[in-house]
Amino acid sequence: MKNLLLFSILILSNMVLKAQTKKSDLDVNDKIDQLVSKLTLEEKAALCSGRDDWSTQPVERLNIPWIWVADGPHGLRRAPATNKAGYGDQLPATCFPTASALSATWNLDMVNKVGQAIGEECQAQNVNVILGPGVNIKRSVLGGRNFEFFSEDPILSGELGAAYINGVQSQGVGTSLKHYTANNVETMRMYNNSNMDNRTLHEIYLTPFEIAVKKAQPWTIMACYNRVQGVYGTQSPYLLTDMLKKEWGFKGIVISDWFAVVNRVEAMKAGMHIEMPRVSGVNDSLVVEAVKNGDLDIAVVDGLVKEILTIVFKAKALEKEGAELNAEKHHAYARQVESEAITLLKNKNQILPVTKEKYKRVAIIGEFASAPRYQGNGSSEVKPTRLDKALDIITKEYGKDIKISYAQGYKLSDDNDTSLIDEAKKAAADADIALVFAGLPLQYESEGIDRTHINMPVSHNKLISEIAKVQKNTVAVLTNGSAVTMPWINEVDGILETWLGGQAGAGAVADVLFGKINPSGKLAETFPVKLEDTPSFLNFPGEQGEVLYGERIFVGYRYYDEKKIEPLFPFGFGLSYTTFEYSDLKLSAKNTTDKEGVTAILTVKNTGDVKGKEVVQLYVTDNKSTLLRPKKELKKFAKIELEPGEEKEVTFKLEARDFSCYDGKREMWIAESGEFTISAAASSRDIRLSEVVALQSTQQVPLAFDEYTFFSEYWKNKETRVLLMELVPNWIKGFTGEGKSGYNADFPGFMVDHPMIKYPYITNGEISHAQVMELVEKCKSFTYNP
Ligand code: BGC
After folding, report:
1. 251 shares its domain with 399
2. What angle do CA 569, 572, 573 make, to 5 degrees?
3. Is 122 part of a structural domain of the chain?
4. Is the same domain home to 666 and 558?
5. Of 338, 515, 590, 719, which has the highest C-beta tally within 10 A?
6. Is residue 24 pLDDT above 90, yes or no?
7. pLDDT for 19
C-alpha cells in the first residue's frame, strides 16, 4: 500500500513535470533516490536489461512499472504482445511515407506533424517509446537501409530528425534516435568497424545526432551494432558519455540496438543504460559479479538506474487512457505528405500534368500500379490500416473523363521475364500518354543486406525503353527507396520519383500526375550516373570487418563537387509545374565576427501560373581555409508556398557553427577568419545568388604544437620563433644573409621541414632532447586567433 502511494505520487509529480519549477524536479528525484536505495543489486542489474522483446523490466515488489517500446519509424509496428516478435502479426497502423520520402519534402512542419500522428497512434496502442527516427547518413547508394534514413547531408538529416522527435514527443510518447552512430553498412553490421578520422566523425556522422539531441531531447538513443573508431557503439565512453551527455547535454537513456551488446559491464561503464531485448540472465549475473569484485562501481549502476526510472515514470505519467487511432484522418494526411515528397526529375515539353484537354487516353503500365511497393524490408515494416493502388485511384478519380487502360508490363515475381512487354506496348501505342510504373521490388532494399548494384530489374528497364519506342509521351513513375540508374533517361519525356510512399502513396502519385498537386519534392540524396562515380565506391562495404571511410568528409554532393563529377540528378534538385525567380540576396553585414554571425535575406517569386512550393537552400563556402573544406555545404533551408505572381522574403540566420569546421587535432569546432561565400540555391548545382561576407574570428584556440610539429611551424609563429631564437641562435645564424638578423633567417625547406624532435642532431647538439620537451611543455598554454 505504501509503495502504491509512492508510485502514485511519482506519477502525479511527473504529470506536471514539464510545467513545474525546479522544486518538483527535486521531489521526483528524491522519490527515485528512495526507490534506488531499496533495490537489491540483482534488481538493479535486471532493470538495466529488457524484460522481453519489447518492454523494460518492472520491479513488482516496489511497484516499478514497465514500459512498451516498439518499432517505427514511419509508422508503428507493434507486436500483439511484448514477448512476440511481431513480424506479420503486428497490429495495423498508418504506414506513412518512409524516411526516403519524408526527407524529400524538406518540410520540417510536415515531418513534425507526421511525428504527432505516429505519437497519437502509439498512445492508442499503449506504446510508450517508438524506435526511430534513423538519422544515419546515406554514405553509399548501396546501403540496404537507405530508405529508412533521411539524407546524405548531416544538417538536413538532423533537422528532420529533430522535427520528427518533437512531433512524437509532443504526444507524451518517447522516441529512440538511432543508430548511434556511423551505422552505414548492413554487411557484417554486427561487427564492422567504421574506421574514420575524428574530423569526419564529427562533421558528418555525429552532427545529425547532435542537432536532434540539442533541438529535441529524444527520451532514448539507440546505440549501434557496429564499432566506431575501433570501439563498439554500445561500449564507447567517448560517444555515450563525452559527446552525448557532456557535450550535448542529453538527458535521456541509451538503449542498445537489438542484440548489439558484446560486453554488458563495459557498456554500462561507458554510459549505456538498457540492453535490449532480454537475452538471458547471464549478462545480469556478470553485472552483479562485476560490482561485487569491484570492477564496476555501484555508483555507476545507481546513476544508470535513476535515469532509467526517470524515463519510465515520465512515460507512465504521460499515458493517455482511451486514446484512439484515427485511421481515416491519418490515411488522408499520409497522402498529403507523400504528395509533397514526390520529386519531378524530368518534364520535357511539359508532358505533365496529365489533363483531359491534353490526353484523352492514358495507358497505365507496370505491376506496381496494381501491387504497390510502399515501404522497405525489415524491422520497420508496418502493417497498414489499408493500402491504395494507383490504378484504382486513377480509374476512380479520372476514369469518367479519360479512358484508362492497364497492362502489367513485368512480373514482380520474376525480374528477368520480359514476356509481358509486347502486350504493354500495344496498350501504350493505343493511348495518348503512357505512365510506366517501375522501380525496385521489395527484395532489392532491405535491412540486413546491402545492394550490390543500383540498377532496376532488367524487365523494368527494358519495358520503359520499349514503351518509349511506340509512345512519344512516356513518363517513368519510379518507386524505390534510394538512387537507381536510368539507362533510358533520354528516351522518355517525364520522370517522377515517388520513393517508398506509404500506404496512401498511390493517391498522392495520382494527385501529382494529374496536376491536383504541384510537385515540390527535392532530392535529399545525389543520384549518380553510375555506381563507380559514388564517393565510397572503393570502400564499401569494407572487408574483414574494416570499413575505411576513405572519402572522409566528402560524402554526397561534397564529393561530386570536389571531383567535378556530373551526377544524374544533383542533391537538392526537383522540378515544379511552375517556375521560381530568386532575387535581392542581401547580407546584414559585409564584415562580421563568428559571435555576431550574419543574416541573409532574399526574395523568391512564383513566375509561373500555378500555385507551388519551393525549397530554398543556403550553402556556405569557406573561400580560403587551413584545412581542406568542401566547395560548399548546406547550412539552412526553407520551404515556402507561393501563389502565381506572389513573392516572399526568406530569412536565414547564420551562426558561428555554420562557418566552422571540426579540427580533429585540437578536437574543437573552429571558425577561421576570412571570406565566406553565401549562396542561395534551388539545388546544389543551381546556385541562383551569391554574396560574400568577411568574418573575423574571436576564438582563441590552442596552438597544439608538440615534438612532432615541424621546425618551420615553430618558426612561422611569432611567439615560438622567439623561443627558437633563444634555444638555437647559432644554428639559425647560419641562415642569415648580410645585414639580416636571426629573426629574418632564410631557411631552405629541407632544413626546417622536420619534426622538432630531430633538432638535437640537426643543430649539432645546440638543443638537447630535454630542451625540446621543455619547449613543447611551454607551448601547451599558447593559443592563437584562427
Ligand atoms: C534494428 C533496429 C530495430 C530493432 C528492433 C534491429 O535489428 O537495427 O532498427 O529497431 O532491430 O526491431
Report:
1. no
2. 45
3. no
4. no
5. 338
6. no
7. 45
d(CA 385, CA 504): 10
- Look at residue 551 and tell me whether its pLDDT is greater than 60: yes
> 151: Cβ–Cβ under 8 A, 6 or more apart, which residues?
103, 137, 138, 157, 160, 524, 525, 556
Task: Please confirm, yes or no, whether 511 is among the known catalytic residues.
Answer: no
Ligand 1 pocket residue status of 131, Cβ below 6 Å: yes
Ligand 1 proximity of 70 Cβ (cutoff 6 Å): no
Same domain for 549 and 402, yes or no, is yes
Task: Indicate if 296 and 240 belong to the same structural domain.
Answer: yes
Please state, in angstroms and rounded to a whole number, the distance separating the CA atoms of residues 211 and 373. 32
Q: Is 178 touching ligand 1 by the criterion CB < 6 Å?
A: yes
Asked if the structure places residue 31 within a domain, the reply is: no
Domain finish residue from 663, 680, 699: 699
Pair (253, 295) in one structural domain: yes
For residue 257 and ligand 1, the question of a CB distance below 6 A is answered with: yes
* 543 Cα: distance to centroid of ligand 1 (angstroms): 23
Strands 494-497 and 474-479: parallel
The residue from 672, 699, 726 where one domain ends is 699
Query: To the nearest whole percent, how much of the chain has pLDDT over 90?
Result: 94
Give the model's pLDDT for residue 424. Answer: 98
Q: Domain for residue 246, yes or no?
A: yes
CA of 45 to the centre of ligand 1 (A): 23
> Is residue 8 predicted with pLDDT exceeding 80?
no
Measuring CA to CA, which residue among 217, 213, 210, 100 is closest to residue 155?
210
Burial of 332 (0-12, 13-18, 19+ CB in 10 A): middle
- Least confident stretch, 26-35, 378-387, 390-399, 551-560: 26-35
Residue nearest to atom 7 of ligand 1 (CA): 258
Number of domains in the chain: 4
- Mutate which of 258, 381, 446 for ligand 1? The one with the most ligand atoms within 8 Å of its CB, which is 258
Nearest CA to ligand 1 atom 8: 257
Ligand 1 atom nearest to 189, measured from its CA: 8
How far is the centre of ligand 1, averaged over its atoms, from the C-alpha of 257 (Å)?
6
Closest residue by CA, ligand 1 atom 4 = 258
Residue nearest atom 9 of ligand 1, based on CA coordinates: 379
Nearest in space to 341 (alpha carbons), one of 436, 155, 163, 478? 478
618-643 burial, b for 16+ CB within 10 Å, e for fewer?
bbbbbeeeeeebbbbbbbbbbbbebe
Whether residue 332 is contained in a domain is answered as: no
The answer to whether residue 21 scores a pLDDT higher than 60 is: no
Check if 53 has its Cβ closer than 6 Å to any atom of ligand 1.
Answer: no
777 and 671 fall within a common domain:
no
Distance from C-alpha of 131 to C-alpha of 137, rounded to nearest angstrom: 17
What domain range is 489 assigned to? 342-374+390-563
The DSSP secondary-structure symbol of 97 reads: P
Q: Does ligand 1 lie within 6 Å of residue 379's CB atom?
A: yes
Asked whether residue 663 falls in the same domain as residue 629, the answer is yes
Which CATH number fits the domain that encloses residue 432? 3.40.50.1700
CA of 342 to the centre of ligand 1 (A): 27
Out of 71, 145, 185, 256, mutate this one to test ligand 1's pocket (max ligand atoms within 8 Å of CB): namely 71
Q: How remote is the CA of residue 689 from the centroid of ligand 1, in Å?
A: 43
Q: What is the pLDDT of residues 82-141, one digit of tens each?
A: 999 888 899 999 999 999 999 999 999 999 999 999 999 999 999 999 999 999 999 999
711 and 694 together in one domain: no
